[in-house]
């Protein structure tokens, strides 16, 4: 506790960087996963290649991906962009299947009714299918959020500052206080992301609250 009080400004700064490195890829990954998930659901011949192909991306070791990113996108090894791109890849790997499953769970009768009311394909996707699929997608997004918070800390090994830096600092000094603070901070950050996703889901799906009531 004493160590945290003496270094709370540094911890808050690292937490802010961690939020950016874990949160921005969530948004970017979701934006990319929605059209890919829709294609996997819409065209049967694309389902297996897209689901399996994106799923395999998650098997790439995070440290190796962080190190390889500069060679792929031409950045410096310590550039935070490397982590953002790598975490976006992991987020897409987790969410494509979730988006496809969520869209597949929308009843055909609902889609047919929307089409009969004059909804074109794109309008129906954003105004009918995605809202109804939101609970399923949100569940996958919560898993991706917790995963991102955890994996981002690995980037401290290559020198990218965030909460994982507390782990490397603690190991370097053979001092447990920064390690404990880093663990608690990561858990609280994951909880914050989870609560934010739950809150956003409730705002997007007000009919769910009415149904429960």
Relevant terms:
MetI-like fold; mainly alpha; single chain; 213 residues
Describe what this molecule looks like in 3D.
The protein is mostly helical and about 210 residues long. Helices cover about 85% and strands about 0% of the residues. It has 9 helices and no strands. It has helices at about 1-40, 45-55, 60-75, 80-105, 110-115, 120-150, 165-175, 175-205, 205-210. The chain starts with a helix and ends with a helix.
Q: Given the C-alpha coordinates, what overall shape results? A: elongated
Question: Percent helix among the residues?
Answer: over 70%
- Regarding CATH, which class? Mainly Alpha
Report the portion of residues in β strands.
Answer: under 5%
Total helical elements: 9
Alpha-beta classification: mainly alpha
CATH level-3 fold name: MetI-like fold
Averaged pLDDT: 90
Order of helices and strands: HHHHHHHHH
Please give the CATH architecture.
Answer: Orthogonal Bundle
Q: What is the name of the CATH superfamily? A: MetI-like
Unreliable runs: none
For the record, give the distance between the C-alpha atoms at the N and C termini, rounded to a whole number. 43 Å
Number of strands: 0
